[in-house]
Amino acid sequence: MADVGEVLMSVLSTIRVPKPGDRVHKDECALSFSSPESEGGIYVCMNTFLGFGSQYVGRHHARTGQRAYLHITRTRKAKEDENNSGSGHPPKKKPTRLAIGIEGGFDVEQELYEEDVKVVILPDRQEVTSEDLGTMPDVVRERVSLSMSGIMAADSVSHTLQVQQWDGEVRQESKHAADLKQLDNGVKIPPRCGWRCEVCDLQENIWMNLTDGKVLCGRRYFDGSGGNNHALLHFQETGYPLAVKLGTITPDGADVYSYDEDDMVLDSKLPEHLAHFGINMMTMEKTERTMTELEIAVNQRVGEWEVIQESGTTLKPLFGPGLTGMKNLGNSCYLNSVMQVLFTVPDFRSTLVMPSLFSAFIIQAKLGYGLLSGEYSKPAPDPGDEIGASEPRGDQVGIAPRMFKALVGRGHPEFSTNRQQDAQEFLLHFINMVERNCRSGPNPSEAFRFLVEEKIVCQQSQKAKYTQRVDYIVQLPVPMDQAANTGEELKEAERRREEGDSSAPTVRAQIPFSACMAALSEPEMLTDFWSSAVQAKTSATKTTRFASFPDHLVIQIKKFTFGLDWVPKKLDVSIDVPDTLDLSGLRATGQQPGEELLPEVAPPPLMTPDVEVKAPVLDDSTVSQLCEMGFPLEACRKAVYYTGNTGIDAAMNWIMSHMDDPDFSAPLVLPGSSSGPGTTPTESLSEEHLATIVSMGFSRDQATKALRATSNVLERAVDWIFSHLDDLDSMEVSEAGRSAAESEGGRDPPPGPRVRDGPGKYELFAFISHMGTSTMCGHYVCHIKKDQQWVIFNDQKVCASEKPPKDLGYLYFYRRVAD
Asked: Which among 333, 438, 777, 799 is annotated as catalytic?
């Protein structure tokens, strides 16, 4: 074996020193969830700074020829007995600072590790430590030492992502703090307790104005709790900007609010400002919750958190393949719950975890392997302060989906942050992402895709219009007026809760599932519908039915709404969602025998009798909105014309139902016009544009169709052709079939979106629940049925469910069952 110094010299040119901007992956393997704490540690390529677990570093070496890797391993140190009272200090069990959005939720003492770092040369795995470098030539020692120290000192990619994503509230110094005016009015505030609002005698949520010492109650919260706004009213009358919450004063600080800046702020002169009114900050103790703690408390509905998380019952921890927990990266529980459910759907398991997966889904494949393999489904090390705990919690080592979260959130204004999000919106976002990347291969989103048929019947002419659209989720309304329990019972429970009665029982509106389905299927009255049959606006009914039934059905309970004051709120309801579902009665029937259709004509354009009008009068704003969505200009003009300028919704429905028409993007031709199909601008296409698209591997017919659909604009044609690959693949067959049919006097319908269809009978296999008052706060967990047993996935906790709260879910997932 060659001398290690000579080997290092031979690979010295491949060893780089990290520069500012280099992404150093030293906390997690690029292809798995191995970390420095895992068995075998992690190997960081000293050229690309990618990290690899022990099972993948050899593969990277074989593929790239890179030989020098920095091997990092960490071993957890044994904790000293914190309960030992011999030191004279109390045990450190209580969190010292509550923090929303950080991993675990609390700023507790960090784990201690022993770290071992050395250079490993493949393929012989020769090892070089920092001490070994002292005996090597200066040029080797200097380059390798700088690379090692640079890698270790650099922020890891996971840390950088956390900093970029975290959008938490960082309090700033108030502009009023340095020169705050304080009145010499002789006011002295008692230092401990007994504070009351000087206006209403309220004893909670009490604030002192730092200018005149007035003690008043704080703001009223949107749920009715809090104060009576007297501190705010005092600011509006006097203009005195800063107030401190008296019950939060400790030697470490306090909650200070600036009414002028409308935000929580820092006051570097707080001890001096408090001393002016006789308060010694160093002797104060906290007697009230901080605003951060109150935010969490307000978000926790009475009983909801305990029921959904099955608190108070002994849950058996589960481990093994398909039972892997996911770490909360700071408000990422919505992502964890959705992905746990998706990777139980066979289409996603087979498509996104394939070894031969194309590059766009490497990170998804990594996530799928991490969840399904069972490799990371192991009990977490026992925390020192929980030894002897009577209730097993099911905490796992689990996986931290940092790279996946960064990938799916890239460029999105919400999912790229660490703020809480709506699980339903994330599910649709991920499905759209899969759709964009699976146009030329297996598409797992087809498992959820279905067609909706909307039937509109003009009440005056009784003629009908049918349209179809693609959807992925059934949004189920919640008819509160159909609650099984009485309104008086609900009002009494709400009154007792607002009065702070801790003994008040938890009472929710009990909505029958059948009432929700009836609200979904009943006809909707349209009062301002323009009927092409009577050439005027009239009333109509709209009925929605399933034109196809997907393999997997997602139902969203529309719990989130807005109050009369437009404040977001959540309906606290209990719905008896069934384990089995039969939607066969909601199958669309299409046009019925003898039923007449509404003619597709628009009213005559607005004109005066003595003026000839050569072009229709169209709503330019509606046309512009449609064009901004990427539709051809002429198609947008036709949509607005044929829907009689009745608005964006009607025009969009026209576009969606005519996208596959051969003349979809052809210019608008009015009745009686001399223009014909042979004279439209789309007939003369740029030969240069055609040649460019043909050179990409498409046929001339396909290139022609793409250019015609995009008004002969090359860039848009390229985007269009890649988004319609399925239609283009079947174009020759469809066109040949259409020609044959037309020769027989018939015509095949143009190919539509690819959907699966089958019986409308389903069984429940998973549901996602939300705790909190709105989608922007709270917590998500999911329950999944595995081998006829319900399992609760609560971030890193995976346990057998004893009482799955199926009546409190937000998203429900059904799979088709055979007849």
From this structure: 333
How far is Cα 509 from Cα 503, in angstroms, rounded to an integer?
19
Long-range CB pairs of 681-689 (<8 Å, 24+ gap) are 681/711, 681/712, 682/707, 682/708, 682/711, 682/712, 685/712, 686/712, 686/714, 689/714, 689/717
User: Smallest Cα–Cα separation from 72: which of 26, 32, 130, 24?
Assistant: 26
Domains, the chain, with CATH or none:
4-78+110-166 (3.30.40.10), 206-300 (3.30.40.10)
Residue 259, annotated as binding a ligand: yes
217 annotated to a ligand binding site: yes
Q: How do strand 51-53 and strand 809-816 relate by DSSP bridges?
A: unpaired
546 is in an annotated binding site: no
CA distance 771 to 313: 18
Active site residue 627: no
List the catalytic residue out of 429, 689, 779, 783: 779
pLDDT tens figures, 154-190: 877 665 555 444 434 457 899 999 999 999 999 998 8
Six-digit token string for 51: 């990290």
pTM for the model = 0.63
The verdict on whether residue 220 carries a ligand-binding annotation is yes
Residue type, 454: E
Kind of pairing between the strands at 474-476 and 552-557? parallel
Using CA atoms, how far apart are residues 261 and 244, in angstroms rounded to an integer?
A: 14
Q: Residue type for 136, please? A: M
221 is in an annotated binding site: yes
Can 779 be counted among the known catalytic residues?
yes
CA 543, CA 522: separation in Å to the nearest integer?
7
Cα separation of 390 and 447, whole Å?
Answer: 43
Cis amide leading into 123 (omega within 30): yes
Residues 6+ apart with CB under 8 A from 139: 9, 12
pLDDT tens, position by position, 702-760: 788 878 777 677 766 766 766 565 555 544 333 333 333 333 333 343 344 688 999 99
- Identify whether the C-beta of residue 534 lies closer than 8 Å to the C-beta of residue 461: yes
